[in-house]
Amino acid sequence: MKYQPKISIVTPSFNQGKYLEQTLDSILTQDYPHKELIVVDGGSTDQSVEILKKYDKHLTWWVSEPDQGQAHAINKGLKHATGDIFNWINSDDYLEPDALSAIAEAFQDRNTQVACGFTHCYYEETGETSHTYRMGVKESVAKTIFNFEMNQPGTFYSMNCIRELGGINESLRYVFDDELWFRYLTMYGLDHIHLTDQLMAHFRLHSTSKSVAEGHMKFRAEIDAIFEHMIRELHFPEYVQEIWQERNRSDSYEHGKWLYNFMDTEEFLAHFADECQYKLYRRFKYEEARTCCDLVKNHRTWTDKRQFWSLYAKLFLVNQDLLNKLRGVRNG
User: Fold this and answer.
1) Was domain 7-213 assigned CATH 1.50.10.20?
2) Taking the model in full, what pTM does it have?
């Protein structure tokens, strides 16, 4: 391996002393020499501080003091990071052996900005596997964003990209990893993403983790808030904005750095048009529904639903033969 980049890992933690030592060991015992580990503890009252003192000489920097949440803790750690590659590993997750060597190998191509490997997700209580997956990269930026396959522990970014993107969005509690990924995709596209089949990390599902304890709907609300922001920033038609505002009412999440540079504006609009067209039709807003249908038809990958062609027929008054021809053109 000619190029041996330095890999910086930040571990945010709060009262996870039960798992913390396994996390630290999984990183520090990696058979890759050019690494640094930074731990940002939020003022834990369990055994975490004793563990950190035990590992003190192996850590680049650590602190235990109250913070403003997980995203804030990661950004605090970033200020002390000096590596070429970055990721955070939460204190209840852990790396697979040889993960960092695989990441360094992925970055041998100097065009690589993000390396995506697999993460194994499992239930602590039973040891049963939930799923093993990788970032859901599709054929376009829009489809990748709407694919909802977020694998943060197995995804390592170029530090230059992280700096240029401004770090982690501290206004979010649940989906700051998604939002970072969205910003990366809209700024840089898909060309510099390296996909590897290597298993990188293990994600533990347990009763006190946010993913389990705080519920799917809170994650969903923040994602919807991001999409609502995208709609406004792209100046989508008012009827699209109105429908999404009715659905979400989540403006409270919109502060901090929400910086995007959209590459597939029309494809984004086609996705939201697909969401809106039926509601507009039911409200007798036929002209707006026709506009949405045209957008969806022009981006035919959004038109997998059989309902779409039925609605298209009603709105454009096409006969069944013509409808079948349209379907044939699409399928062909």
Assistant:
1) no
2) 0.89
